[in-house]
Structures are given as structure tokens and as C-alpha cells.
């Protein structure tokens, strides 16, 4: 029976709701004025040597308030449950009135009988808002005592006062906990919002560039603004190749250190390989709460170690840069906080993993873009004409693709000598700046060559025949072009040209003056034949002049008129009239607006 009672009592004392209530009521063994006053009333009103407000926890009894309890218990204000009479109030669920504890089998072995001379005991339950008994208000006498009904009633009433104080404190603690929970939820929501903002900013920034090095730099700037104090981004797509490394710090004064760190890390293949292999092996982030001890031990280079120490090496996190296409790690991002900051949270680890995935997408996009550019460059080189060497005529040409797109387009230039000694030059622009435009341009250029070579017709007649060929062969072309034939004459040179909706040719005269060869506009190539032949304009130019043919990408700007672009080009021609042909080409390209379209440029110097 005693064993059964002990098991029941242990279960009651360990009840979780009751334990939570006890821990909300008192901070532990510290003086409590409110409960001390209740204990003083017990001491004075019923003339008890000792009065106490006892709270019973799972493994101890706390004297929340006491009067008359001898030292050292008075100062310690807590005792083991074996010393507690009040635990029997909690276990029984009712007031305990004991004239002599030595005669009660439950209490006769209590060490307090000998330690403080506790003989008579009366204890009334103290309850919490849920009706759970959390302790007892008790009176203790050092002699046997028959407790009177009025004394027992007074103890019960004062116990209700204690219960009211307990309910008030628990309500206050509950409100504080609810407030703290709300604050924590608010902080969590703000953190989640900031992390989503970071990922959105990162995605937008990485999508705006196809250059891997620039993408890594942008990633470092964004990550160190909110997620970590500093970071190192290492991309090693080819295990045997050279790794690309970038480093960034939230403190701008550390920029030089970060540049040097990236340089040293790029040359430290062993350290980088260990970092990348760590995330490759686990396939997930590697977090270290004590980065200063763990991660720095892996850094073999002394200078590298000094830089990381200056940067502040505390908690660290390594996340893989994962390819969404090939499903493997292309590199790793090391995120580090200063030693005075806490370890990375689970939410920050998730955000960092997302950063790694989006960085992997940027790396893959950059790789695909490089491959596409390589194909485009090979195609473009195969389509553009190698300029011939012609006595008395100096030729210079440039082609620049649009800044956006496939690095290839529909602009072209051409020059070839005719059997009769004249020279045919052309510049054209097929609509679009992509692979399809380049393919169409190749067909159009070959048609121009095939149609013009060996024939002595004027450029207008040649373009008229080209219109018929494009229509008859169903070539899906819509293009502007200028076709010119240059012949020598007694005064220098005669230039006949036809313009199919193209910007006007420019002529730089030997005295530095510039002529703009405006002619009445004629339709683009590739439109249905209109039945009227195209016209040819003629100009006689002196030796030493330079004829400039170009496409609209060199002069067109959405914010300005075409005339303004032509005037800007003319000014550069006048300023650098005496310069070499290659330098003049470079100067002309410098004044081009932002390249949203291709540029083809052909200089014909008539010496």
C-alpha cells in the first residue's frame, strides 16, 4: 500500500500543467514580499512559531514566503521533497491537519522533525486558475498542538489569498508569454520577409547578367548586406580547371582584404577542393557554430589565415552551388559571421541553400550563354566577308553584335572588285539580331554578290533585280541596304549608289568637310516588287576622300532623331579626319548609343 501511494504521489507531483504553474509563480529561492506577508499573518494570528507558503515542484519544495524558519533553510528557501510536509497536501488534494507528525505514518520519518523541531503541522491547498494544487500555506509548531477550528478556518482563508495571488501571477506570466510569442512570431515573419526579399533581389540581379564573374560579385554584395558578415564564392565547374573565386565583406574598408583573399583562395586548390568536396559529399549545407576553431584549422596559407582573422571568423556555413541541369555541385559558398554573432539559424540555412541553387542556375545560364556566343561568333565569322586588297582603295570594316541576344545578327558589309576594274561595296541590315537574321543575311549577301558580279548595271538596276530574286525564290528577307559602285574618272572617282531605306552614306573630303548623301527614300528589300525600277544617284569625289557606309545601330537612338545621330557621326569624322583607318573606325564606334541593335561599318578610302 505504501508503494502504491508513493507511485501515485510521484505521478501527481510530476504533473506537467502543475509544474508549469509552479515555475510561473516564483523565480526560485529568492525573497517574495507578498508571500512573506501572508506567512507573517499566519505567524501572528494563530501564534505559530513558523509560517510558510510552500510551492511543490517535481523534485523540490520552494519556500515562496516564510517566517520563523531557522537557518540555513530560511536563506536557501528550498529543500528536497523528502523534507516536505506540504507534498502530502498536493498528493491528497485536501487540507492536512496533523497535531503530531510523529504519530502520522506518512510524516513520521520526515528529516524536518529533527532539523527544525517540526512537530505539529497544518497545511491548506494553494490552487492555480485550472484548479490544480501547486502547494500549501502551512503553520508549524514545535510542540504537539490541537489545531482549533478557527485556526484551521483562518489558514484556509489565507490560503485562498495565496491562491488569488498565484492566479494573478500566472495570468500575468501567461500574458507576458503570449506577448513574447507574438513578438517572436513578428520577428520570424520579418525575418522570412527579409529573406524572401533577399532571394527576389538576388534572382533579379543574377538574371540581369550572363557573366559568371559579375554574377558572383553581385551575389557577394547582396548576401553580405543581410545574411552574413562576409562570404567567399568559389566556382569550379571543371574539377581539373582553374576555380573562379570571389569574396565580399559587409564592411567596405575590408574590400582590399577580400580581393587578396579571393586571389589567394583561387591559388589554394587544396583548400577550395576541401570546401567543395565537403558539400558535394553531404549534398547539403555544412554548418559550424565555432568556425574560428573548426574552419580556420583547414586554412593552410598563413596570409589567408591572417586575412580571415581580421575579417572576423565566427560561425560559418558552407552551401553548395548546385546545377539545376546536371544535378551536381559546381562550387560552394562560404558564409561567415563575426565571433560576436550567433550561429546561423535553420531559416538562414534554408535561405543560404536557396542562394546556392539560384547561383547554380546563374552559372548554368552563363555556361549556356558562352556556348551560344561561341557558336554565334563562329557563324558570324563565316558569314562576314574578308576584305579584298584593291590597288588605290583602302578598306576597313567592323562588326559589333547587339549587347543583348545571341551575339550575331543581320547586319553585314561586303566589298569586291569587278572584272572591269570598278569596285562594288555594300552595307545592309536584315531585320532582327538573332541566328535566323544571320542566316537570312547570309542568303541575301550571297544573292547580292552573285547578282552583281560581272555585270555593269548601275546599283539601282542591281537592287531591282535583287527584289525580283528575293520574291521569286521566296527568301523571307526584309532588309535595308546601300549598294555602291566606285569607278575611277578624270577628276578622281565616280560613285553611283542606290539606297533601299538605309541611313545615308557619309563622305569625308580631303579638306575635312563631311557630306551627307541624302536621297529620296525607296522601299526596303524583300517587299513585293512595285513595278518601278530603283534609282541610282551619282557623286564625283576627289582622291583622298573617305566613303563611310554603316547600319542604323551606329546612329539610331530612341531618345534622338536619326539626323542627330548622323550629325554626331559627322562631327567625329571631322575631328579625326587625318587619323589611320583603324583608329577612325574605333572612334566612330565609340559614339554609338547603347547597342540594342547590331552595327556594321565600312570605310572606303579612295587614295
Write the layout of secondary structure elements.
Layout: H1 2-13, H2 16-25, H3 33-45, E1 50-56, E2 60-67, H4 73-76, E3 78-80, H5 87-92, E4 96-98, H6 112-115, E5 120-127, E6 133-141, H7 149-207, H8 212-226, E7 230-235, E8 244-249, H9 255-267, H10 269-282, E9 286-288, H11 291-294, H12 302-311, E10 316-322, E11 329-336, H13 346-383, E12 393-400, E13 411-417, E14 423-430, H14 435-452, H15 459-472, E15 479-489, E16 492-500, E17 506-508, E18 514-516, E19 537-541, E20 545-550, H16 562-575, H17 581-590, E21 599-606
Antiparallel strand pairs: 1-2, 1-6, 2-3, 4-5, 5-6, 7-8, 7-11, 9-10, 10-11, 12-21, 13-14, 14-15, 15-16, 16-19, 17-18, 17-20, 20-21
Helix pairs in contact: 3-7, 7-8, 7-13, 8-13, 9-12, 13-14, 14-15
In brief, what are we looking at here?
With 607 residues, the protein is α+β, with helices and mostly antiparallel strands. Helix content is 43%, strand content 22%.
User: Which bin fits the share of residues in helices?
Assistant: 40-55%
Poorly predicted runs: 1-8
Category by helix and strand content: alpha+beta
Main beta sheet strand tally, sense and closure:
6 strands, antiparallel
Strand order across the largest sheet: 3-2-1-6-5-4
Assembly type of the shown chains? Answer: single chain
Strand content: 15-25%
Task: List key phrases describing it.
five-stranded antiparallel sheet
Q: Care to describe what's here?
A:
With 607 residues, the protein is α+β, with helices and mostly antiparallel strands. Helices cover 43% and strands 22% of the residues. It has 17 helices and 21 strands. It has helices spanning 2-13, 16-25, 33-45, 73-76, 87-92, 112-115, 149-207, 212-226, 255-267, 269-282, 291-294, 302-311, 346-383, 435-452, 459-472, 562-575, 581-590; strands at 50-56, 60-67, 78-80, 96-98, 120-127, 133-141, 230-235, 244-249, 286-288, 316-322, 329-336, 393-400, 411-417, 423-430, 479-489, 492-500, 506-508, 514-516, 537-541, 545-550, 599-606. The strands form four sheets. Strands 3-2-1-6-5-4 form a six-stranded antiparallel sheet. Strands 8-7-11-10-9 form a five-stranded antiparallel sheet, sandwiched between helices. Strand 1 and strand 2 form a beta hairpin. Helix 8 runs antiparallel to helix 13 (346-383), helix 9 (255-267) packs antiparallel against helix 12 and helix 14 crosses helix 15. The longest helix has 59 residues, at 149-207. The model is unreliable at 1-8 (pLDDT under 50).
